[in-house]
Amino acid sequence: MGLLANYYEALAKNGRLDLLLLFGMYDERVYEVVDRHHLADAIVKMLPSPRAALFLARGMVYDCVSEVVIRDFIKICMLLSRYKTVEEGASLAELIGSCGIPEQYRMNMFNFSETYRHMILSKSYFPQRSVLRLLSYIFCDDVLSDAVAQLQYKSDILNHVNKVYVDTPDFVSWRFSVRVMSLAGGYNEDRSDVEYTEALTRVVTRTLPEFFVYFTATFAYAMFRHYPRRVRGITPRWLARHRALFSATYSAILGVYVNSYLEYRIHKHRMLYELRKSQEYRRRRGATKRGIEYHENKYFDNLEGVTRRVYAMQTRAYGITGGALLLSMLPLAPVKFPKWMGDVAWRHPFVPRLFPAVLGMHTASRCLVPFVFAPFVTLTIARFNGWGATLYDRYVECRMRMWYRKVEVAFDTSTDVADVDITKDSPKKLF
User: Fold this and answer.
1) Angle formed by the axes of helices 391-403 and 125-139, to 10°?
2) Distance (Å, whole) CA 247 – CA 257
3) Would you give the DSSP letter of residue 82?
4) Residue 334: its pLDDT value, please?
5) What residues contact 251, with CB distance under 8 A and at least 6 apart?
6) Positive/negative CA dihedral, 59, 61, 64, 65
7) φ, ψ (nearest 5 deg) of residue 338
8) Does residue 71 contact residue 84 with C-beta atoms inside 8 Å?
9) Other beta carbons less than 10 A from residue 152's beta carbon
10) What pLDDT does residue 389 have?
11) How many angstroms separate the CA atoms of 72 and 56, rounded?
């Protein structure tokens, strides 16, 4: 454990941020190194790199990241308006949508209502997705109910949100547009409804495509490996098909568990940390104003506690996945069942279909779950190298290219608002 931590420190001192961000996709302790060496500004300058954008989006609950990102909020919006690849668009949209998570900046985020209107009116689905997710997190704050009502009266933003709800083919924009209109309309909804929408969109845009990709690739690979024995008549067609389906399902479940399911569990823990941190800071401010004694919770003074907890979750998931892969390669030997069990193949049909080697049947592999290791490892490595976009994001981009051959985003990039720093206590006025 200490070896990896020392390696991260060496990477931070040498300025090798690309490699540090790569490890940050697997290890939460990298955020602690970023906080200690004040590397958030350098990472923001790497934008529109998809890996940098997603690293910052994941760390928006940490003050060292959120303060720097929100300081350059308008510049990041401009980068999103000129994105070139699907990875850039999806990762920057994730980053902008996460800007509504830090509670202390939500009131100041209302200053960019005109920017939100431009992004919603754009012909691109990724800016629409980002601003609707951002507004959902802003509107769910009970303290800002009066500000939400003012925003409705001073702008026509909800009319544009309604148009997105009617026209968009993007499931994420559609669901978050419903959430924005419900929250702004005064319905009895709160942060839990936004979290439910977040979970639903993750299932549709990440979990289901991941399951499909792992299942399809492993099934095709297993059928290819069964082909030589199948065409010679050694392995029956039904046996090859059932073994391939078993291997594909096993690989897909492992892929979903170690990728999207783990990400969602970590996301829930980060959101809980941000909520508890905001409550702790409010108590501290209240105690300071009243001049009373308050025993501060030292857990929120640094990132060591939360990063160690998340790292433990990651290590446990990686260990379970590695053990499952090793278990799948366990070789099976023929077993002689006792007579009182009768005809095992007849009484228990799943045994010859899934584990033919136990009955001494010919098969292409005697492993417990054959042909899982190679496609699983290949897809996992390819996924982390092309980290920014999922299969659903590519589908959304294809739909946009089909309907809008020339994408024009309604952004006026020549504006002085890019110099506004809303993280300061007394922001400067622009004339």
Assistant:
1) 120
2) 15
3) T
4) 76
5) 214, 215, 217, 218, 372, 375, 376
6) positive
7) -65, 160
8) no
9) 14
10) 81
11) 12
pTM, two decimal places: 0.85
Between CA 67 and CA 164 the distance in angstroms is: 30
Residue where the block lists tokens 């509504």? 100
**What is the C-alpha to C-alpha distance for residues 335 and 356, in angstroms, rounded to an integer?**
11
Alpha-carbon gap, residue 49 to 88, rounded angstroms = 7
DSSP codes, 45-81: TTTT-HHHHHHHHHTTTSHHHHHHHHHTHHHHHHHHH
Q: Show the CA angle centred on residue 316, arms to residues 313 and 317, nearest 5°.
A: 85
Q: Distance between CA atoms of 343 and 8, rounded to whole angstroms?
A: 59
Q: Which amino acid is at 388?
A: G
Contact (CB, 8 A) for 243 and 219: no
Q: Could you tell me if 328 and 368 are in contact, meaning their C-beta atoms sit under 8 angstroms apart?
A: yes
Residue type, 224: F
Tell me which residues of the chain have a pLDDT lower than 50.
Answer: 407, 409-416, 428-431
Q: DSSP code of 426?
A: S
As given in the structure block, the two tokens for residue 184 are 């702004």
DSSP 364-401: S--BSS-S-HHHHHHHHHHHHHTTT--HHHHHHHHHHH
User: Distance (Å, rounded) from C-alpha 48 to C-alpha 54?
Assistant: 10
Contact yes or no for 215/251 (Cβ under 8 A)? yes
- DSSP readout, 224-264? HHHHHHHHTTSS-HHHHHHHHHHHHHHHHHHHHIIIIIHHH
**What whole-number distance in Å separates Cα of residue 176 and Cα of residue 189?**
13
What pLDDT is stored for residue 122 in this prediction?
81
Query: Could you tell me the domains of the chain?
Result: 39-189+390-419 (1.25.10), 207-296+305-385 (no CATH)
Find the Cα–Cα–Cα–Cα dihedral 297, 298, 299, 301, rounded to 10°.
120
**How far is it, in rounded angstroms, from Cα 31 to Cα 56?**
10
Mean per-residue pLDDT of the chain? 83
Gap between the Cα atoms of 138 and 101, Å rounded: 8
What's the pLDDT score for residue 143? 65
